[in-house]
Amino acid sequence: MQPAATAPPSATGPLPLFAAVLRSEARKLHTVRSTYWLLLAALAANLAVAALLGALLPGHMSLQQKTAIDSVRVSLGGLHLSQIAAGLLGVLAITSEYGTGMIRATLTAVPQRRLLLAAKALVLTAVTLATMTAACLGAYLAFQAFLPAGDPMHTTLATPGVLRAVTGAGLYLTVLALLGFGLGAVLRSSAGATAALLGILFVPTLLAALLPQSWQDTVGGYLPMNAGDAIYSFRHEAHTLYPWAGLGVFCLYAAAALAAAFVLVTRRDA
Q: Given this model, what pLDDT does residue 269 score?
């Protein structure tokens, strides 16, 4: 189903107009079938991987390995799949309209292009943050539930650092969706924005592996995926950024894409 291009109710003043556009964009996002499939895929990936790891992994590890491993990060292993869904959700939140030509009707209804883009980004943020945080929390709880009784990898949300890591994973996926959204608004192509997003995530890390170890230690933590990963690590590793610093660096990548989108949206035809 394609998004419906409906004009927001008439409103006077910037705040009532923005609220009307927000409601319109929320309805529009809900009419895109891919929204539900991608959110469902992210949820299923997180829960299924966590349950499998909790049930199968302990039997293949020694006691020393269990006490040394970052069990919270392991429980969030599904993020390797759900991050793709989150990124695609961000891309399609904007490019689906460009692909069908519906963006022209949308811009006719809301000629304030930056206000429209801000509303789309805010709706995407709210939906992604709520869903992905719930998915990450569910994954953590599923992993803990499937661990054998008395296993050293057991933790609770009250354990220092656990709640930050679990909720931080939801934040990471939300920022990733905004990065995809920014790239989609800049490139206005689902295929192009998806390729750019995957390239930004994976290519720098792969190229860095070819560098001397001293260079990897210096720049590795600032690469997009490595920086974002820091927020859902329960234990800090050498030569990586601390959790909130890492998320901050990752936010800068998303902010750069969004800034380019806000500049270009008023300089190009639909």
A: 78
Alpha helices for the chain (secondary structure H): 14-31, 33-56, 63-68, 71-75, 79-100, 103-109, 113-146, 162-187, 190-208, 213-219, 224-229, 243-264
pLDDT per position as a tens digit, 242-261:
999 999 999 999 999 999 99
Output phi, psi for 230, to 5 deg.
-60, -30
Q: Which of 243, 224, 241 is nearest to 87 (CA)?
A: 224
Cα 123 to Cα 14, 95, 181, distances in angstroms = 17, 15, 11
DSSP secondary structure string for all residues of 41-90: HHHHHHHHHHHHHHHHGGGGS-HHHHHHS-HHHHHTTTHHHHHHHHHHHH
CA separation for the pair 41, 110 (Å, rounded): 32
